[in-house]
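Problem 12. The chain below contains 261 residues. Write out its predicted structure in token notation.
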Amino acid sequence: SNLLVSYLNEQAKSSRKDRLWVDIEHELKRYAMLLSLPRYEISEGSWLGQKIKAFEATPSYSHITPPNNRKDKILVDIRKAVKTHFQQLKTALHAYLKRQVEEFKGKSSLIFNNTPAYFLISDNQLIFNRKNTLKGVSVPFDEIYSFNYTNALDLTQLNQYSDHSKNIQFFYVHGSLSENNIVFGVEDGSVPEDFTFLNKSSHAAFGSSPDISDAIINASEVHFFGCSLGNTDDAHFKHPFKVLSQRRNKARKTQLFFYTF
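Solution.
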């Protein structure tokens, strides 16, 4: 009954065979744009056209005449349902991630040692010693800004190995599972006005962490872990990167390090 989930499942099925995921932020934008189309621009063979045709045969709509009025009514109702369907998707995502975190915590460190996250961190000479063991580990960061909903230090159990990690300020750019306030959606200005509830800025937790742009500009070093920067990240990184690239004062140099797996 959730058409948004149905749409995302359809996109997952039609994606490349070697890819088991969809860019959900991109698909939310496409979904909003699709539903914004006038009825006459929606082809009967498209995903939305087929859904409208299926609804036409149901008792809720079959009595409406002429057919074009019936289709218009169905399209209006589908649009109205997007907000509810989006909230249901967000709730389901939150519940799923909480289950995954609990299952992860219950697994042995041997399982964690085989994950991409472990190799990403263990190969970093700044955090682990040259033998890639946890003995004498240190976490040399003063602030960590996470775009995930979980605390990486807790999940990787680095807290128990490093006294310095207790003094690190950890900020959730997109909210956290522990606070039940995950930020989920699209960037401002990327969807039609009728669907602005999809904006990340519509969430109460949005903007609750310090401005990451200012943090980058004022830092001597910034380390990016597993971060694939795309168009959706412009709001956070476009301005500071521009400032750093135009900085002429050598005394105020900011070094950028990127770690990918």
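Discussion. The two ends are 38 Å apart (CA to CA). Students who got a different answer should revisit the alignment rule from Section 12.3.
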